[in-house]
């Protein structure tokens, strides 16, 4: 579904991604892990077209939606308006957020509240819900766990797993938190200084010294 080949992305003269290859098959859950500054956000922002690559190729069969790092909600708009904004490119019939409320029943009682008044976990639910309003085939989630309590993260992760299982949604989980990423995704890529330094089944990467080294290198 997603095929990234030899991708190079630069900020001015600084190379943020240096020949990255990455694949996500339809219905697959794949993690992209790496320390601070490894290039994870750069990759997602290139997939979604926010950044233009210097060279390389991105092929995507289907629609991508992104849950951006830091959630990026409209704080002064209601939960419901934030959700509706996620469907701005969809036909009229799909702008109804009912299915998002079915997935996240906690949002029903919050629907008229301003997004800026919600807890971090609630905001992350809205951010995921807003991305789902675009009816994606692939959902890229940038730092699901950032700033959230472990229980809240576990609940959100369970929702993502359910979406994958029940609706076949493919997921690219971009995470600094390797435990979460390896638990949720069967396969992972490890990014260090703009290069993929390890890839394979999460079970194998969990104990890999290369992964530990990638994190130490980023400190
Ligand atoms: P984090 O978890 O901190 O977001 P990351 O793995 O997502 O880290 P990126 O944000 O993609 O990493 O950054 C990759 C590299 O590109 C870093 O060296 C960073 O300093 C640099 N970088 C990121 N954004 C810019 C920018 N707008 N201008 C210049 N350099 C940038």
UniProtKB/TrEMBL annotation:
Protein name in UniProt: ABC transporter ATP-binding protein
Protein family: Belongs to the ABC transporter superfamily.
Keyword hit for ATP-binding: yes
InterPro entries named among the record's database cross-references: AAA+_ATPase, ABC_transporter-like_ATP-bd, ABC_transporter-like_CS, BCAA_Transport_ATP-bd_LivF, P-loop_NTPase
Keywords assigned: Amino-acid transport, ATP-binding, Nucleotide-binding, Transport
Record organism: Cryptosporangium minutisporangium
CDD domains from the UniProt entry: ABC_TM1139_LivF_branched
SMART domains in UniProt: AAA
All residue ranges annotated as the ABC transporter domain in the record: 2-218
PROSITE patterns in the cross-refs: ABC_TRANSPORTER_1, ABC_TRANSPORTER_2
Top-level lineage group: Bacteria
Gene Ontology molecular function: ATP binding
Range of residues in the leader sequence: none
């Amino acid at each position: 579904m997603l095929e990234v080949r030899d991708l190079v992305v630069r900020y001015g003269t600084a190379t943020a991604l240096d020949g990255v290859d990455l694949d996500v098959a339809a219905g697959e859950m794949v993690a992209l892990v790496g320390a601070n500054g490894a290039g994870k956000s750069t990759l997602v922002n290139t997939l979604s077209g926010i950044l233009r690559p210097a060279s390389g190729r991105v092929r995507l069969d289907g629609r991508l939606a992104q849950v951006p790092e830091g959630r990026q909600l409209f704080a002064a708009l209601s939960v419901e308006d934030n959700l509706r904004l996620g469907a701005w490119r969809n036909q009229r019939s799909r702008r109804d957020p009912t299915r998002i409320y079915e997935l996240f029943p906690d949002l029903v009682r919050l629907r008229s509240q301003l997004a800026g008044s919600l807890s971090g976990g609630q905001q992350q639910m809205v951010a995921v819900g807003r991305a789902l309003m675009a009816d994606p085939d692939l959902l890229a989630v940038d730092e699901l766990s950032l700033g959230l309590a472990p229980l809240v993260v576990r609940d959100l992760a369970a929702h993502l797993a359910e979406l994958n299982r029940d609706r076949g949604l493919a997921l690219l989980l971009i995470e600094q938190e390797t435990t979460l990423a390896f638990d949720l995704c069967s396969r992972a890529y490890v990014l260090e200084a703009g290069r993929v330094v390890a890839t394979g089944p999460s079970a194998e990467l969990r104990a890999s010294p290369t992964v530990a080294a990638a994190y130490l290198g980023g400190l």
